Amino acid sequence: MPDNIQRELTFSGKVFRALLPLLLILVGGAAWSYFKATAPVIKKTLPQREITMVETMTAAAADTRTRVTAMGTVTAAREVTLKAQVSGVVQAVSEHFLPGSLVKKGETLVRLDPADYKISVQKARSTLADATAALAIEQGSQTIAREELRLLTEVSPDRVDETDLALRKPQLAQARANVASARADLDQALLNLNRTTVVAPFNAMIIERAANEGAYVGTQESLVTLVGTDEFWVEAMVPLDQLPYIDRAYPGGCPVTIFSQTGAGSREGRVIQVAGKVNDSGRVATVIVAVKAPLDTSLHPGAAPLMLDDYVRVTITGRALSGVVALPRAALQDDDTLWINQADSLDIRRVSLAWKDRETVYIASGVSPGEQVITSGLAAPVQGMPLKTGNDQPATPETPEKRPEPDGDPK
Known about the structure:
Layout: H1 3-38, E1 52-54, E2 56-58, E3 61-76, E4 79-83, E5 88-93, E6 102-103, E7 108-112, H2 115-155, H3 169-194, E8 197-199, E9 204-209, E10 216-217, E11 222-228, E12 231-239, E13 255-260, E14 266-279, E15 284-292, E16 311-328, E17 337-342, E18 345-350, E19 352-356, E20 360-365, E21 372-374, E22 387-389
Parallel strand pairs: 1-22
Antiparallel strand pairs: 2-21, 3-12, 3-16, 4-11, 5-7, 5-10, 6-9, 7-8, 9-11, 12-15, 13-14, 13-16, 14-15, 16-20, 17-18, 17-21, 19-20
Helix pairs in contact: 2-3
């Protein structure tokens, strides 16, 4: 290559290298100016205050009574085991002589063979007749002895004393004693004869029988076990801290509603006693509830008969509470506080409880009638946070306008 051409290229390269940085600066400046002119403008705005939607209920004061809920067991109010008072062979038993059968008061359950006892009655009557005749003879002899003593006194120059022996008073007393003894023997014989028939002492249900027809039973041998059917008891286990809320002075006993675990419906009862012993295993007290006619379903439509040893739930109507506010249990928050909607702002308020059960709390103080108590949940409650109740929502949401599809058919 000629030297002049090489020198020309070398000169052009030097010029390009000198102008390249300047060119890059100009291009960069132009790009920066373009992006700055087209960049979005960020406007500063104040954040909107978020309002929480809540559900409320109006507090109202009223008079009510506490309701103590407990579990209990059905037991017999009256239970007795009838035993033979005389010995003998079982001659007959009642047609209802089966476990679970109901028997009426005075109904014959067991009859023993009375033959031997009838003979004893005959003997006792004969003995009484003999003693009565001997008494009559002795009374006649006493009359004769008194007359003889009178005649002897008249003919004798000496004074004759009227002694008991002379008047046969000891003999008369002995004759009267024999009559009394014979009459007592007859009464005993009649009593033993009567005891050959065993009857139900009250309206009852047979729980267990221990005698069969043809069997020999001795004195004091068990025949049958009965429980009274006019009344059952429910032994309810009540925690000690709830025991003071049971009104023991309630006329006739506090009303109780009994719900069986094995049958439908409910039955009514009354608290009749609080046992004076604490159950050490659970630190609970036993409250005895009386249930009238527990097997009679006609008095309790839809309720099944109560069964002995059944495990039941009871609700005891307890002491009166005056001017308390009843609220759902869910409305009570931690540390016995309520959420109040006060002028569309949250007021976290501590209250004083009068009573609470599984479903309802009763507020004694801390909330006034007419205030709006929040019953819905709040994720992060803060004192004074803005609120909006559901009543502020429109009753019916707006329906979006229907637009036709491209083919003209509505969607």
